[in-house]
Design brief:
single chain
Length: about 250
């Protein structure tokens, strides 16, 4: 058992150091190249840092457990062990502060990105509604031309009716238009209004769906990254601050 204890202590310490260094290197790479003017980059940075936040915590835990085994079970103190333990506890305190600051940082950016997305959705909906009148007017002109072409060509009208291209209700309308040409404008205006209302309802539904999706995505991101960051901050603070206080006593 005594021969295994030094090996276990060294293994834990080495594994802890490797995990800490690789995670710190990973964090440095995440920051390169910095682009703090981009909201999506900042949101992605916070999310990826939180996702990787457990790795240095595991490394610090391994190092502390390995140092405890080395001192209390092996009976021999490894050179530089006290300095490494102090450094790991200081790193834990620093990471606790960083993750604590990441929570409001991410929430602020997520809300700003959500507002930006909602503004874009509103602008697109407004632009689509603005172009409705022109699109409906084009459809009305096409329908007017089709009706007039049928009314002016009885042979084509008869052929369309016999072939089933025109249904009974449409035949009645065409007969009404032949008897009362002025009714064409009233019919087309009514159809234009119905089509415009339908398109407006469709745009509004799409806007509501897009708005709901943006709000839901922002809420999920805020809760996931915010709560995870807060839990990591608490864990690092407990490890770092209690460990440093214990070493001073």
């Amino acid at each position: 058992m005594k021969s295994i204890t030094p090996l276990a202590a060294r293994t834990l310490i080495i594994a802890g150091i490797v995990l800490i260094l690789t995670s710190l290197l990973d964090y440095v790479i995440l920051l390169l190249p910095p682009n703090f003017g981009d909201l999506q980059w900042k949101i992605g940075l916070a999310g990826q840092m939180v996702d990787r936040g457990i790795v240095p915590l595991v490394g610090i835990t391994f190092l502390l457990v390995g140092s405890w085994i080395s001192e209390h079970m092996d009976g021999r103190r490894m050179p530089g062990l006290s300095g490494m333990r102090m450094a790991s506890l200081g790193l834990a305190s620093l990471l606790g502060l960083i993750f604590l600051l990441l929570v409001p940082f991410h929430i602020t950016n997520a809300r700003a990105a959500q507002q930006q997305q909602l503004t874009t959705i509103t602008e697109q909906a407004t632009q689509a509604e603005t172009g409705l009148s022109g699109a409906v007017a084009n459809q009305v002109q096409q329908e007017r031309g089709r009706i007039q072409a049928l009314l002016q060509n009885e042979e084509a009208l008869t052929q369309a009716i016999s072939s089933g291209q025109i249904q009974d209700d449409q035949v009645k309308l065409l007969q009404q238009f032949q008897d009362q040409p002025a009714s064409i404008d009233a019919y087309l205006q009514e159809k234009a209004q119905e089509e415009e209302n339908r398109l407006k309802d469709e745009i509004q539904k799409r806007r509501e769906q897009a708005t709901g999706g943006a709000e839901s995505a922002a809420l999920k991101s805020t809760l996931r990254t915010g709560l995870s960051g807060l839990l990591l901050a608490i864990a690092y603070a407990v490890v770092g601050w209690t460990g440093l206080r214990g070493m001073r006593q």
